Structures
1.
Amino acid sequence: MNRDEIERRIHGVFEDAFEIEPERLTPEAKVFEDLGLDSLDIVDLIVALQKQFGVQIREDERVRAIRTLADIADFIETLMQEEDARRSGS
Amino acid sequence: MRRVVITGAGAVSPLGVGVPALVGGVEAGRGATRRMESWDGFKGLRSRVAALAPLENERAIPRRYRRTMGRMSLFAYQAAVEAMAEAGLGSADTASGRMGCAVGSTMGSAISLNRAFEAMIPNRDLSELSSTLFFQCVSHTAAMNVGQALGLGGCVFAPSAACASALQAIGLGFDLVRSGRQDVMLCGGAEEVHATVTGSFDLLYAASTRYNDAPERTPRPFDADRDGLVCGEGSGILVLESLDRARRRGAPILAEVLGFHTCGGGDHVSESNRKAMADCMRGALADAGLDAGRVDAINAHATATLQGDGEEVAAIREVFGGAVPTSSLKGHLTHTLGASAALELIVALAGMRRGRVYPTRNLERVAPECEGILHVRDAPAPVDIRVLAKNSFAFGGICAVLLCGRTEETPAEARTA
């Protein structure tokens, strides 16, 4: 999955689950301050990302460092690279 | 004790969105029962009829509030907004700490509860549960969501007494306002249709099963051919406020709350008990300081179950005699359970202001065990109602009775024939 596809799917989550207009979904947009998500939404964001990308992130400490949409895309990209490496190594 | 009046009403019901649709539907003699095709896949469910309320424009509710609302809470919020608008209440009132709500329901959102179980149980897996689903499932979901979305700083209560929830909520609001603990209370109930809800009555042989192919003919309160209740959904909310405050504000005074009582039967968990019902009626009269002879009309609970209707008739006969015009609105609205008493009270009070008692729909031949009271059938009966009694009964032997009347300010509405 390339970066564009990752970003497209993340935007889809924000549009569908959190009803955020597409024009507000810029890479530097901050999830809490700019997009208005709160603590409850973050739980649902994690569930939606896990479903969308087939990854397990609920217990991943790196989730706490996420601030912006670009951070989410970076994190997902890293997870998928790790998954690819794990598969090719096995 | 302060005098308490009703200054606003809101409704989402099987007859439509808003109080005009509710009252207009009853005026037109409409019934709301329909066949539930989607229930055909449920094994063991014999009753295939229900009454759905329209859910409209819910996206207008900000997502921040909407995300924790199951279907019943969406109804309750919309009804509360309508009631507040009629009463002329705004953010200065809601934030004062002197305004609260009491909104009851049988349980949390049945649809959300089933969704949660369907997600969790097959694989014993919690990982796909939404954070907001829990708030749709809790027993105080309707009250909590109304309180949150309206910014209510006063008391927030969720009386849960199945079919008597709304009348207990109204009675609680009455006590809170007359005692001075609160100045304004949004009171009522909410409910939603689901196969598992109807199924709980069907299991007990209390749901209508013989009219699946003729849904407009059921439920049939007091009728010889009644065969059980039909579940419905929606929400009714009334604004209860001290008379002094309502007068100061120039608010519309739809009725005065005169008395209330609720009591347990303590005899059987599902069988109605005429003695407890009669005791409750006497308790409400005593609370209001009125003799039974002062009651001009009775809005019955009568759900069209074989046992319950007869017991209620016996209690009415014992306390009020056989000459007080009486009807049940379940034939129009079905049994909206935790919302029923609020929706029915809204209609009955509209009837009071118009000088009429609405008839029991589908009452064609009074059952022998339901004789001995003055049934209003076929068409509205012209009655000068100064005092109205509203009954509400529930599983668990719960009884509730409310008495309302007019004040000098209560408007006489157009008597459209």
Note: DSSP finds three helices and no strands in chain A.
2.
Amino acid sequence: MSEHTILALVSIITAGLTMALGAIGAAFGESRIGAAGMDALARQPDEAGAITRNQFVALAMVESTAIFCLVIALVLLFANPLLPAR
Amino acid sequence: MSAEVFTEHVLVWLGPVPLTRTMATSVATSLFLWGALAPVGRAVARTPEGRLAAAGRLMYRFLRNLVTETVGHPSRGLEIFSGSLFLFIAGAALLGQLPGFAPPTTNLAATSALAVLVFLAVPFAGIRARGLSGYFKRYFQPSPLFFPLHLVSELSRTLALALRLFGNMMSGHLIVALIVALVGLLVPVPLMALDLLIGLLQAYIFTILASVYIGAAIRVGEEEGA
């Protein structure tokens, strides 16, 4: 295998790993936020608007770690600085 | 399928200035919003009891509530700024469902421009509301040692805003493009619906976060008084 083939292979595998491992953490975090939000909604249905709004903001914050992993995976696949430009 | 994730499709060169596809789609989104919302504005002025006017008022009340609840008091400037952000991102997500139309928010440069707008609006709103020294006091708040931390947080949250919007919009777009290349008919429809939902949700989240950041700058010092 040539040097570039090895680099491409490692990049593809790393992109998959990045996305897989990055999604785990975000999934756990978002499930906890969802559970806490449901709990709060059941306790205080009157505050549904505020709870939902803050829940969405928290979800977006937690999700950004997965999105950063996605961007890194996309960089590895489509804008890899080590591979020759296509 | 041509994957243009980080590269940019140049349509025309105007001398040394490239006219890219993102520029064209941004202008198209703005024109679409203007064309769709100008009649609503006229309807509110002319026939306040009509359906179109009711829809316009509902939309405006949604945006005003969003700003009022995050800032604590009504703020007309922030309503205009946040409302424009929301309508642009949501309109881009809606137009992205058209075949062959890549929303401008699938481009990292476009989302970075939106995030930089928020980054610049924070000191602008803060200085206008609190005065120069009142605003910059915030950076030295618990103790002057926190100054670098405040700086890093401002920069990293701007980066996060840009990357979050780009990642969400681009991922939806890529997934739909992949499924279309694989199957084609009808199978991508649920994924397109999910893409639309995520696009509207991201517009909401971007708007909320922008309002929270700017609201925090406006409210500097109110917390200590309370």
Note: Chain B has eight helices and two strands.
